Every structure is written in structure tokens, then in C-alpha cells.
Amino acid sequence: MEEEFAGGRERIVQNEVVVANWEKLRNKDRSGEWKNLLMKDGEKLNFRDVLEKTKEQRKIILIIDESHVNADTARANELRDLIGADIVLEMSATPRRPQQELGFARDLATGGAGYIVVDPKEVIEEGMIKKELIINEDIEKIGQSEEDSQQVVLEAAYNKRLSLKKAFEKEGAHINPLVLIQIPTAEAGETKIEAVKKFLSERGVTEKNGKLAIWLAEQKSDTLDWIAEPDNEIEFLIFKQAIDTGWDCPRAHILVKFRETSSVVFEIQTVGRILRMPEQKHYATEVLNKGYIYTNLKSIEVKKEEYNPNIIKHLKADRIEAYKPIKLQSYYKSRVDYGDVTSSFAKVFADVANQEFAIKGTKIADNRKSATARGISLDINKYQQELIADTAIDAKDIDDLSKISPDAMAKLSVAADELQIFFEQFIKSNLGSFRNVKRSIPSLKSAIYQWFRKYLGSEEWTEEILLIQRIFLHAQNQVLFKRVLERAIEQYRVVKETEVREKVEESEQWTDFELPVEQFYNEHADEKMKARNYAYDPCYLNRDRSKPEEDFEDFLNSNTSEILWWWKNGENKIEYFGVKYEYEGQIFTFYPDYLVQLKDGRLGIFETKDAGDRDGKTYTKVKAESLQKYFAGTKNKKLFGGIAIKKGSDWLINQEKNYDWGKVERGDWGDWEKLDF
Fold first, then answer.
1. What DSSP character marks residue 338?
2. Residue 589, SS3?
3. Residue 621 belongs to some domain of the structure
4. Cα–Cα–Cα angle for 446, 452, 456, nearest 5°?
5. What pairing do the DSSP bridges indicate for beta strands 639-647 and 603-609?
6. What is the pLDDT of residue 31?
7. 22 with 70, same domain?
8. pTM score over 0.70
9. Shared-domain flag, residues 160 and 221
């Protein structure tokens, strides 16, 4: 940035994105003088001059990341005033806003702020972040001495990294998982660094061989520049507080946090460095969809906040000794299709475009001639839009707008920001059945830009992106490119279907299901319950359970004489019990609500519903019949269960091969029997 704007440039060009270190840019010395070369007065233009000259020609949008710490200080406000942006976008995972202002957007036209809140569940479902963060997995008991606990924590983190590495290799993903080791900021931190170095050195991890890096205020490894790359060789990073905010390295999967005080409040901001997914998708191997925290803290508190999706799991429950193996066949299918156009579209688009415009090689001059001969106009200096001009409306026709016609049209150039909108709208209108616009548009834009650069040499053009968009949207060219996009999307559909089919086959897993030895919970999402014969000790159950689920649990707690153990099943994870079913041509996983092991050896599998449920003709019917089909296909004759509904004081169960909810609606309970263990 210094090379570009310290006397080298007069202004920021249209659609250019300038990334600056906020802290460095705004720093001043004690006398109030700017410390950064970019901001200092001198013979040459500084960045402040560049901003002023830019504002003479175009609008500026300021985007502030991590705004909860970067946006409201005195110096930050000074810099914001200096930039004088027309629009300011503040981004944060933990915004400092009153709760009553969240969840809705205020009218921007009034001059107030507009707030957009993204539900964490949506972000997880999109594969952007991990499903959960586990604290001290595989550690039964941390040693009493500082040395012992330190060794245990490091060993656990080291072994977890190795297992994650193998899991990534099995997935075919070139990801080298990174371990972040946070040491105390006090003097004891220096001793801790040496102890960590010694531990890692004994296992072949050193700064010298590039597997260890250090990021401290007073000491930084010279290998940090490319640490965020997915396959970077650095395996461990030692830090204090330097990377807590504004640092992004999605391959970071493990955080080691050493004791500084007796307890720590964990919040999203603290663990956000290991929250992101390296390829913005979840994997078939479930361990890769989790983050792992190892610490020698005596106590841990998880902060409750509206932005916390309750993924920090710190409460552990152990499977009870009365549990005996059940060996159920369980089905799991990870999400493989987001309904989007992916990067593989680029080749399809290039093939179609080259065929359309008779392009046969990579000689730029020849390709431009061929494209021009096929009707493409490349000499587009501006993109104009027609506007109504000098048009009168007869008062007597005011109720009949069809009679209003323009007397004249004016052609005006379209601003860069509008051009971007038109370009994306054009792409959106040609996506066909691919409905995930958010994920698809970047792939299509990238494919278009790649083609222009490779075959038409667009990288030589001034304001390249703007010119490509103008060419694409020009009336003469638009018809041709619309045809190219339509053909490419149609051909890509076959490619996508093949990709999805292969991924589905890879993602489908049948496992010998057993209840996990241990499970982790979050005190804000789960409540500790007094339950009889529950499969885990202590018993934690989700706070958002339905009324039928709570009623069924009361029923189970009142029949303990016949029950060895019972368990509330979860969903969407391989460690939960799943049944395969098909609905409208697609394969899904059904996660029944409860597993109940009886003392006589029978194992009940139940899905609870309310007697007023009206889903019986759709999902419920398919799930009910799939569960009965599962029972019929297994060799285990001690399995039973089905849809369970409370009627009066009794619980009724339907175990019919063909599920008919209509009978229930008519008051015919002939297919239902009293559930009596």
C-alpha cells in the first residue's frame, strides 16, 4: 500500500478495493503527528490527499471489520471523519448494539443505522463455521501439578492434530491443521514458551524446520506471511494476545489455552480463531466439523450471548456402566449439495463461449478477431441506460397508465455501483434451477472474468472489471452472452449432477452405532435434569425440547422398573442414530427422538408426535414407514418402536407397515396400541 499511495497515485480508481491496517493507519505520536508514512505531510501526495482527490470523482464505501473494537475510539472517529465515506459498513461477530435494535433493519433513508443479523444456524448450515467446539476431549482428569497438567494438555492437542491430519487426507483435502497455543501474558509466559518449545522439539516440531511459528509483540517468526494457506507447513503457533482479533486462518482447528487465572469466561471472540471451516463446507468425516480446545484451567464459564450459537461444549457426561452394546446399523449422510454453481463451472463456460465465438486457441489477437466476427463488440467505453425525457401526462388518462408513452428518451452513463448491480442481476436471471444465488454468483463472475483474461487478454485493459461488465451488458452483446450462459448452465447441470452423485456415494455412511462413551454440552443450551436410568451421568437435555418430548420423558421416568436406560437422540451428526429414508426423490436421514433399552433385552426406538400433528401425510408418514422397514430388515428381532402419541394419560404407539394419519384425524385409533413395557 505504501508503494501505491505514498506519492505514487493520485486517487483510488473506480471499483478498487484498498485494504489497510486500521491500527497502523491511524497511529499518531505524542505530539499529534501522523506516524505512518502514508499519512505524513511531505513533498509528495499522502493518503489523505489521495482520499480528497478520490472524493472529487466518486463515492467511497468504508468497511470496518471487527467493528466492536475498531469503530468507536477517538482516533478511529478521527480517521472516519478524514475518510468521509458515503456509506460505512461495520462488521462484527459480537456487535455492541442494544438488543432491542437487533433482529430488524431501521430505515436507512432516515439517516439511522441499518442492522442485519445473521442467524448462526444459517452460517453453520452453509458450512462456513464448525458445528461445535469441544473442550478437553479425551482428557479424563488433568493432573494436579502444573507440569503434569501442561504435559497432558499438550499431548492431547498434539495427538488430536495428528488424527485430524489423517482425516483430512482420507477426505482428499489438502489441509494441514494448525494448533494455536496461547500462553499467559505475565512473566510466567516466558517459562511457558520454553516448556512448550521443549515439548514440541522432542516430537520434531521446531522453528528451524518450519513446523513451529511464534507470534509475539517482541518476537515474530519470519514464516508467518503464508500461515493462512491451507497446506502451509506450520503445525503449531505460539502467541499471547496478538491474534485474538481480526486474524483469519481457517485451517486452525485446535486451541491450547494455558492457565493464567483460575478460571476464564469463554466467548465466541475468544475461540473465533478456530471456528471457521477451511474450505467453507462440512466434511463427511464428522471430527473435521468440530474445533477442539485444550486447557489446564480449573473452571470454565461459557458466556451467554445472542450471537453465540451454543457451539462451545464444556460440560461432560459419561455413559453409565449399566450400558451394554446394542450394535445398531445407523445411516448418516453429510450435506454435499448446496444448490449452487461451483468453481467447476469455469471450464464449462469457457468451452461453450469458445464454441460460440469460434475461439480455438490462446492467441489473443486471433481470438478478438473471431469474437468480433461472431458479433461481439469489444469497443465499449461506457454503458448507457435510457431514461424518459420531456414526457407529458394528460390528466384525463391518469387512471389508464397504458396510454402513457415517452415523447423522448435520454441516454445516460450508468455509475460503477449500478453497473455491478445490473451485471449481477443479469447473471442471476440466467441461473436456471440453481437457487443458491449467494454461492453461485461469485462462481459465475469468476468464470466470466477468467475467460476474458485467458482468451481476450482483458488484464491489459484499464479498469478491467468495469470494461468486462460493460461489454457483457451492451445491448448488442447481451443477447449473445445470454445464449452462452443458458447453454453453459444447461451443460453444467450434467456436470453438477455427476459431482453430487459421486459426493453422495462418498458421503453415505453406514456405521455400527453405539452410544458415545462421553458427550459434551453447553449450560445455556442444555439443562441438567434429575432423570432415572438415563444413559449418561449427569443427564443434560436440550432446553428447547417439545411438549411431547417432555411428556414422554415423564413417562419413561415413571416406568424405571422395566427400563435399563433411555437416551434422547440428537440430529445431524454421525454420532447420533439415523435411519435412511427417501422423500420426493431425495435421500435424507431420520433421527428418532428416543432409544429405550429394556431389562428384558428389547430395544425401543420412538419418535414422539403431538396428537394434533398434521404432518402425517408428508414427512411423518415417510419416517414412520421407513422406521418399520428398518425393523423388518434387521436380524435383531428385539427391536420395536414407531411413532408415539399421548392420548389422555396413555401413550400409544403405531407399528403398522403402512402409516395412515387420516385414521387418527377421524378418531380411529385401531392401528395404535398402548405402550406398555
1. -
2. strand
3. yes
4. 165
5. parallel
6. 74
7. yes
8. no
9. yes
